Amino acid sequence: IDFWTTVHTNFDQATVEYNNQMLLLIKENDENRFYSTMNEINKIYSEINKISPTISVLSKDNNGDLKKDIFNFKISFNADIQNLKDIKLIIIFNYNLEKSFHYNYNTDTMLYLHINNYQGISEVKTIGSLNLVQKSPLKTMIEDNLNDDFFNYNSNQSYDFLSIYEKFNSNEISTEYVHKKIIYPFKSTKEVELDIIIEIPSYQEVDYISNSLYSLKRAWVQYFCTFLPISVIIYLAIQYAYNTKILNSVEYINGEKISNNE
User: Fold this and answer.
1) pLDDT at 116
2) Which of 215, 244, 205, 227 is nearest to 2 (CA)?
3) Smallest Cα–Cα separation from 34: which of 88, 81, 72, 73?
4) Is the pLDDT of residue 221 over 60?
């Protein structure tokens, strides 16, 4: 029984949507190449050779609850496979957590994937889940868009791959791609293929702070459910004690003794 505990745990599935925002950075022959769907990032990396990938995104709703359960990203691009040693990928998602009368959080989170292989990279297959990471419980009924102004380009600001990664992971809510991967170093073609499967947990643990009225109601219900049975047990015990003459009792009417239960 927690009575006045204000931090509670709920198991929920987030509503996740791909934002059409992606950043791909590779190291080939000791030189960086990149691809980005974000104009602000393109300005920063304007002097770096670009990648021209082919990208397909599939999503599935397995149980018809209008929430995406699986995303499958397939990314392919030409590269010098033997000299391709490092790949970094950021995919940005809109991430919404909502429980009626308790919390409503809408923010941007990311998938970060780092692939490194000194033998070269020709094909990568990963499968994993996009897990919620909380630094603190969600506050009641606060709708937050944590990253709305993050990509508003300002000439006085400089965003690189590392700063984007650090920014998203410094938020109160972030996500981590917990995955397994297979790396194939050699292939006859010059095309690199990334096959990324992302599962959205259907029972994600979410900690949140309940509002005062909910805490009061919860405490009152718990008090009632706890002490009502105790009161009944005490009453029955006293009644049994009198009926079985364990306790002495004397009855009076108008000051006159009429019975002595001994």
Assistant:
1) 92
2) 215
3) 88
4) yes
